[in-house]
Amino acid sequence: MPRTARNIVEESLTKQRADALWTANYLPVLPMTPQDFDIGALLPAILYMARWGHRRGKGKFIETFCQQEGKIQKPPTIADVAKRLAKPESTLDSFNDEIGQSLLGDLLLAYCLENRGRALGHIEQVQRAFPTHYLSSWLDLPKEANHLRGVPELLTVLLAQQETGQYLESGNRNQKKQFSIGAGFADNALLALFGQQMIIQGQNTSNLTSDFFVEENAINFGIDELLAVRTAQACGSAPLKAKGTDIERIFNRHPLADGAAETLREDLSIFILTYGGTVPRQAFLQMLEAGIGLGMTNLLLSTANLLTVWEVTGQVPEQKQQISIPLFIDCSHGQDKILRDLSEGSASEGIRRFERLPLLMMLLRVLDDRVRIDRRLRDSLPSNIPNATEWINLLGEIYQERHPRSEAIADALDEDCQRLAELLENDPDIAEPEIAHRLRHSQGDPALRLAETLCELMGDKLQRTHYVRCLENAMMTDQPNGLSIKRRVLRSQSGSNRRIDLRSIVLTTPLLEFLVHRHLYRTATEPAPLSLQGFIKLLRDRYGLYIAQEPPGQPIPQEMLLRNKAYLERRLRDLGLLIGVNDAESMKQLKPHYRVEISNVA
Are 212 and 198 contacting, i.e. CB atoms less than 8 angstroms apart? Predict the structure, then answer.
């Protein structure tokens, strides 16, 4: 059987080292896996961790609703769920006929469940549960929690604000923290918001059947919440916890880009605490998901920019100096061709800069791999949990040859390069003389040479493609509450035509609503006036989103900037989010759709 590039790396570096390097993530920098994930599927997993204090394992959704064909379980469909919920003697048995089944299926598809690929119809595989009620977290969708790439854990850690410790600790009823985990429905703002009419029965709060829905109190319950409750009740209990000590517990890892992480935490906590009980549930979910998408996009782009600075200086920038890769917003939402083209150009440049992130993550893994076992350093290494800034700065000092052990570690990495080059030259199945030549003779740092080679051997699919898809998922491209829209165009290149995807950055209505409402409050209980001019500046400084000013390195005519601002002003007026009695900029003030009684805010 022919050997693969992975086999050669294992032979050269040992299998243990190859396992640590042959991946796409580096958790001390970004505590998630940069691959496909669905923002809309995150909240049930977050609710589960908030209630139980650990990660989700296997549940009963498939065995409750699937069709059994011999020994094979077919994944449940909307029709399967509707049939099971409307069986005779159930509370929904009035739907137990052909028309009723069709109506119940439509209600489930509208409010509770989503088909694979967002397909319509009742016979497609169900893959996601909408978080219309806390009990949606009882449905183990997606089937594998790993498909969410660690993003629910990341958001849970940010909201919990636990400053020390390797793992998040359950049952911490610190009243200063509104998002403690494993502490009951009254001690977590998300559980209080989504767990209406839920109580914990008995003294053992960790019993998976201890959650109880109080039917007689559910007077003003919506059909969306009721269907979520009935679907969960059919399963009988919450899912089991993930198996294994290190697997079940939630690592208390904080992102290296702590400025973007703090922005995301503030945005979500203030929006949830201020508007959770005011905004209608379906509108609230759209706005909340838009806010998560924006925050994750900012986190990813800030991480890429931060590591670009680290590569040059060897130091992680201070929080106030951390900025995102800038993006120009098309406020016309594609109606103005020139603004659309300018935004597409900005997004393309931003993605081009972002595409270096996989290499920088590999460079950190290569340095980490050697520094951790260095004889002189291994007993005095700084911790990388919860925050890895000190650890990454140490790696930067070694990479920039400012550390006493830099030369020894560089020599060891150069030996790794020479060994790998020899195998790549002589292997009969995989002969890579060009890569081997660069490994042997390039003048660059050996850590970077090895990182570049490993990325090249792993291939585009395992590196750049995963990262770009992760960013696109964070932007929620082409979704009604996303940050970007995409179009495919035909471009001539090297004498041939090929289709490429272009993305423009936009402010969809739910995202615009989220941003306005969030920033009309400085804290959950402290309103803050906000002018149009202040809003535009806030988007630039806080998220790297440019509207009335050209992004660094992208010249834009002043006329187009003014036109872009006019489009934004018109959108805000049409949505009822802007009031102004005259043309004076200071008189153009933003206002909310949903007004909050301050005394009622948690």
Answer: yes
Q: Give the CA distances from residue 143 to residues 48, 67, 120, 459, 470, in Å, rounded to whole numbers and listed in that order.
A: 14, 16, 20, 28, 20
Q: Which pair of tokens denotes residue 228? A: 């979520």
Going by their DSSP bridges, the two strands 113-115 and 72-74 should be labelled as unpaired
Instruction: Answer yes or no: are the C-beta atoms of 528 and 298 closer than 8 Å.
Output: no
Instruction: Name the pairing type of β-strands 521-523 and 526-527.
Output: antiparallel
Question: Which secondary structure element, helix H or strand E, spans residue 261, and what is its range?
Answer: helix 258-275
Q: How far apart are CA 316 and CA 309, in angstroms?
A: 7
Q: Is the pLDDT of residue 492 over 80?
A: no
Alpha-carbon span 437 to 447, nearest angstrom: 16
Phi, psi of 402 (to 5 degrees): -110, 5
Q: What global pTM score does this model have?
A: 0.95
Reference 384, options 370, 395, 397; nearest CA is 395
**CB within 8 A of 322, min separation 6: which ones?**
257, 258, 259, 260, 302, 305, 306
Per residue in 99-111, pLDDT (tens digit) is: 999 999 999 999 9
Average pLDDT value for residue range 194-212: 83
With contact defined as beta carbons under 8 Å apart, do 505 and 545 qualify? Answer: yes
Listed residue (348, 366, 355, 363) closest to 305, CA to CA: 355
- The residues that bridge with 578 in the sheet, in sequence order, are 590
Q: Tokens at residue 41, please?
A: 């599927």
Alpha helices in 377-500 (DSSP H): 389-399, 406-426, 433-441, 446-458, 466-475
Exposure letters 465-497 (e unless 16+ CB within 10 A, then b):
ebbbebbbbbbbbebebbbbbeeeeeeeeeeee
Q: Is 147 exposed, middle or buried (0-12, 13-18, 19+ CB in 10 A)?
A: middle
pLDDT of residue 404: 96
Q: What is the mean pLDDT of residues 52-57?
A: 93
